[in-house]
Amino acid sequence: MKLKKWLESVLLLLVAMLSGALGAFVGVNIGTDVSDLPSAANVVAILKAHQIGHVRLYDANAHMLQALSNTGIEVIVGVTNEELLRIGRSPSVAAAWVNKNVAAYMPSTNITAIAVGSQVLTIIPKIAPVLVPAMNYLHKALIAANLNFRVKVSTPQSMDIIPRPFPPSTAAFNSSWNSTIYQLLQFLRNTNSSYMLNAYPYYGYTKGDGIFPIEYALFRSLPSVKQIVDPNTLFHYNSMFDAMVDATYYSIGAFNFDNIPIIVTETGWPSFGGADEPDATSENAESYNTNLIRRVLNDSGPPSQPKIAINTYIYELFNEDKRNGPTSEKNWGVFYTNGSAVYPLSFSGSVQNTGNSSAVFCVAKDGADTDKLQAGLNWACGQGQANCAAIQAGRPCYLPNNLKSHASYAYNDYYQKMHNAGGTCDFDGTAMVTAEDPSYGSCVYAGSSNSSGGAGRSSSSTAAIAPMGSFGASSNLQVPILQSLISVISVFFALVSL
Ligand SMILES: *[C@@H]1O[C@H](CO)[C@@H](O)[C@H](O)[C@H]1NC(C)=O
Ligand SMILES: *[C@@H]1O[C@H](CO)[C@@H](O)[C@H](O)[C@H]1NC(C)=O
Ligand SMILES: *[C@@H]1O[C@H](CO)[C@@H](O)[C@H](O)[C@H]1NC(C)=O
Ligand SMILES: *[C@@H]1O[C@H](CO)[C@@H](O)[C@H](O)[C@H]1NC(C)=O
Ligand SMILES: *[C@@H]1O[C@H](CO)[C@@H](O)[C@H](O)[C@H]1NC(C)=O
Ligand SMILES: *[C@@H]1O[C@H](CO)[C@@H](O)[C@H](O)[C@H]1NC(C)=O
Ligand SMILES: *[C@@H]1O[C@H](CO)[C@@H](O)[C@H](O)[C@H]1NC(C)=O
Ligand SMILES: *[C@@H]1O[C@H](CO)[C@@H](O)[C@H](O)[C@H]1NC(C)=O
């Protein structure tokens, strides 16, 4: 038993180190309006089994905080809207809250932030005047407990406080909130905290009444005639999610604050809805969340802030059957309470077989070194076992007859076959992934929606997994393999500890 515990912590530490090293993360919100909510220990077992390393609680439930201790999982705790008024009026209530709900669990439970209220400006605008004072009191209490460098204070807000989010470059907060927003941004900057954004393309799409194509909401590639471009910046928006995050960056920028990063504290898609909610389907939910995870884990920011990754929490872990409202409101969860998935979803970003909705292609980069490209092409068609027939003279992908085009075809063919087995799109730095289908004319790339199942996603051949040797790419390979190994082992431990 001791050995098991020890192994478990070593493995979780490894998972934590790996996910740290890999940059951006995707976590999950844990709502508890669930009639058969599992015990805290079982909730944590489900998190571990699915390699979820970041969670947000809506309160500071003692059982959950205890169960999350020594797991390596990072936790955002919540001040509820009901608690907010008293905290905002009294520094001593704030201090007691921090001592009871944060300090008492640190450091064994890794609490990294306090989310103060939930969408306060739109849900209970009356108490907006106490919001920033409450945040200040909590921050002062953290200073007193010497926790201010580890625990940040912020407050999740809805997109609804930005009345016209498109085009992002002209977005601005509703001016009724000027003074609260100004104080809030000042607080976030002074304390090095993030702006917490709840961003729901599901609502942007369903309330847009057909203004936006569904592909845009689901991170699917858009036909060239439907590209979404900001007319002022000429930035292309591949997804409504990116546009919402950028609208928020521009709204913050309009107050002359920069360097306040955004984290998305809620986003998701319901998997089931009422008769009047045709877009709430498990296909769309799977597509949205799968593509979201891939989007976030690519580590880039939105067009205006490409270097700031968008850490994101999916809404939500379980279907909350006790919630009021339309049917969809009860169906945002990604797991059932028995731990099985509502639809296939991998938090580690490894690609699930989700058909055409998540096509990602691997192509040669512009301006890549010619010798390296040639070596990559040779490797892919040789050891890599890509099917390079189509780029031979007279075949559909022979023209244009140049190295970049041939390498792209071969790289992609290799990648489509092998990425599930850990094959990477790297080729000594000459390759990149793209959501844009590179097919043209009769030259159809593997993985394209036009290809007749040629992607060979679950190819049983594992002879060649990734470029080795001269590519020095073995390190690219280790991470996915190690991750799946860890995943298998932690599932095992999760089951043992259930
Ligand atoms: C807690 O999370 C922070 C933020 O990622 C990390 O730097 C720190 O090492 C973690 N602490 C523990 C004890 O795991
Ligand atoms: C801004 O907020 C106020 C107060 O909530 C609201 O009455 C008004 O309609 C909002 N303005 C816009 C443009 O949404
Ligand atoms: C809010 O701020 C904007 C921009 O600074 C300004 O144009 C607007 O007049 C302000 N509104 C109020 C109600 O103060
Ligand atoms: C914020 O970050 C700056 C620079 O990284 C640092 O000097 C300062 O101490 C930090 N302040 C807080 C409150 O964390
Ligand atoms: C878990 O619960 C769901 C929904 O109630 C059910 O469809 C599924 O079969 C259950 N899975 C297992 C393994 O019991
Ligand atoms: C995905 O495939 C389905 C059915 O095969 C089709 O209806 C849908 O249009 C395709 N979507 C894309 C983006 O190609
Ligand atoms: C990451 O995603 C963004 C937004 O979709 C895209 O613009 C960018 O090219 C992607 N980067 C890579 C390396 O795939
Ligand atoms: C896919 O096939 C359709 C119909 O044959 C064609 O119009 C479309 O351009 C093709 N798409 C690509 C990316 O080749």
From TrEMBL:
Membrane protein topology class: Lipid-anchor; GPI-anchor
Pfam family, one: X8
Principal location class: membrane
Sequence ranges assigned to domain X8 in this UniProt record: 360-445
Keywords tagged on the record: Cell membrane, Disulfide bond, Glycoprotein, Glycosidase, GPI-anchor, Hydrolase, Lipoprotein, Membrane, Plant defense, Signal
Catalytic reaction annotation: Hydrolysis of (1->3)-beta-D-glucosidic linkages in (1->3)-beta-D-glucans
Keyword Hydrolase: yes
Record-linked SMART domains: X8 (SM00768)
Domain of life: Eukaryota
EC code: 3.2.1.39
Any one biological process term the GO annotation gives: defense response
Location(s), subcellular: Cell membrane
Family: Belongs to the glycosyl hydrolase 17 family.
Entry protein name: glucan endo-1,3-beta-D-glucosidase
Classification of source organism: Eukaryota, Viridiplantae, Streptophyta, Embryophyta, Tracheophyta
Encoding gene per record: LOC107482787
